[in-house]
Amino acid sequence: MNSQTLARGDIATAAALPARIGLIVPSSNTTIETELPELFRRQSDATGRAYTFHSARAGMRTVNQRELDAMVGRSAECAEALADADVDVIAYACLVAIMAQGPGEHRAAERVIAGAAARGGHPAAVTSSAGALVRALHAIGASRVAMVTPYLRPLTQVVREYLEAEGIEVLDAVSLEVDDNLAVGRLDPARLLGIASGLRRDGADAIVLSACVQMPSLPAVQQVEDALGLPVVTAATATTYEILKALGHQPAIAGAGRLLAGSSRP
């Protein structure tokens, strides 16, 4: 638990309590709240640690600049609401909303969220799916990637330019051209092996299989990594990695790629 919680009780008792994970999600989200709990269930099976999830929702139905801007504008309000639950970590779980604000924006967004939680009286560690993806790729030494996104091509270009501003070259990117966020959550992850196999991967250090926490990808992560022989990272696995780091927990998650396997630390 966070430092304030520890100050109120016995440290040994607090260490045995579930870690509370707060998520700021689009109102139309249907995926991150299923993929993250599944990943942390596997972590619990391996380590015995327990985790609970607590979400604040910000309005966003269509993936366009106006709605993305509005969602980002509500981040402080959502963080203040999550602070009421005394969460240990807050993850802003909409990658493109932050990236659409301009290069490097994850740093400012994370500061805003941390400040709002602190003002609510319950400081928490903060990450974002945008920042998590950047930092996870750097952690595994991936400076060149091939990428799959559900977005319309202009937004995929925004993601490409954002990553490249962070020193990560995007060698190839596939846009699935879906702008309805509910429809993104209905995309079939069974298609991802075929899609990823068609990417230009010569010289790539990793594959970003889903640059969106709403696009289902978890069932395909290990399959694509095994088939193509490259590390596979998604917005969801990167966010999970950062949450575990913030909690001081070593990843030990099976079947979700080497980033989270724990056998070889990035």
TrEMBL record:
Catalytic activity: maleate = fumarate
Positions of the catalytic residues: 94, 212
UniProt xrefs under InterPro entries: Iso_Racemase_Enz_sf, MaiA/AMDase, Maleate_isomerase
Domain of life: Bacteria
Binding sites annotated in the UniProt record for substrate: 29, 94-96, 151, 181, 213-214
Keywords (A to Z) from UniProt: Isomerase
EC code(s) of this entry: 5.2.1.1
Pfam families xrefs: Amdase
Gene3D superfamilies referenced in this protein's UniProt entry, alphabetically: 3.40.50.12500
Modified residues (S-(2-succinyl)cysteine): 94
Note: Reaction is initiated by nucleophilic attack of cysteine at the double bond, yielding a covalent succinylcysteine-like intermediate.
Complex and partners: Homodimer.
Function: Catalyzes cis-trans isomerization of the C2-C3 double bond in maleate to yield fumarate.
Family membership: Belongs to the maleate isomerase family.
Name under which the protein is recorded: Maleate isomerase
Organism per entry: Actinoplanes oblitus
